[in-house]
Amino acid sequence: VFIAQSRASGSHRDLEDEELTRIFVMIPKTYTEEDLREKFKMYGDIEYCSIIKNKTTGESKGLGYVRYLKPSQAALAIEECDRSYRAILAEPKNKSSESFEHDYYSNVMRPELRGNTLPFCMQPEYCSFEKAETRIQEPVSKRLSVVSRLPFIQEQLFALFDLVPGLEYCDVQRDPHTNSGYAVIQYSTAASAIYAKYKLHGFEYPPGNRLTVIFLEDGNDSSE
């Protein structure tokens, strides 16, 4: 999916620079850039660290950036660092830091103000999606139904949905009368299922064959 996105948007290196190698974190206001580097160097090669400061007083705002050399290192840092850092992928540099800080506080730092708390993959685009979707009040669950006009291959569909962490099983079925594809997907958390639906509903797989992804009742309380 990342490869397809980068080809569509031009330079692969530009995409990595803007979206995949820089993370945004919440830190104690006493941290220096060296402290920040020391805490995050275990996850990969750091190109630079920076701390956001008040323009008037010069004091730290308790927020910072860490830029890695590889997207895999940034992803590892987000997955493995202490939850108190609230690490997410940073917005591209062409978006103002003030705007991104506002989004960060609205969507990540203050989850109690939102309809649901979604701990997985706190990307700004994901948070804004979730905020819009709460108006619809669609029942959610950990289980998804995937429908296609073409039959699925078990291994290929599993590999596609396994891009989202937490995949528990992928059960592919086929209607002998229509030869269409049907599968049931289940994740370990509702957050993963929501993100998979958001990313893969309407996705063309294979090209020209659009997937329909909807929630299936899994027997749990969807309000969680």
UniProtKB/TrEMBL annotation:
Domain of life: Eukaryota
Keywords linked to the UniProt accession: RNA-binding
Residues in RRM domain copies: 21-95
One Pfam family cited in the UniProt record for this chain: RRM_1
Keyword RNA-binding: yes
GO molecular function: RNA binding
Protein name per Swiss-Prot or TrEMBL: RBM45 protein
InterPro entries documented for this protein: Nucleotide-bd_a/b_plait_sf, RBD_domain_sf, RBM45_RRM2, RBM45_RRM3, RRM_dom, SLIRP/GR-RBP-like
Keyword RNA-binding among UniProt keywords: yes
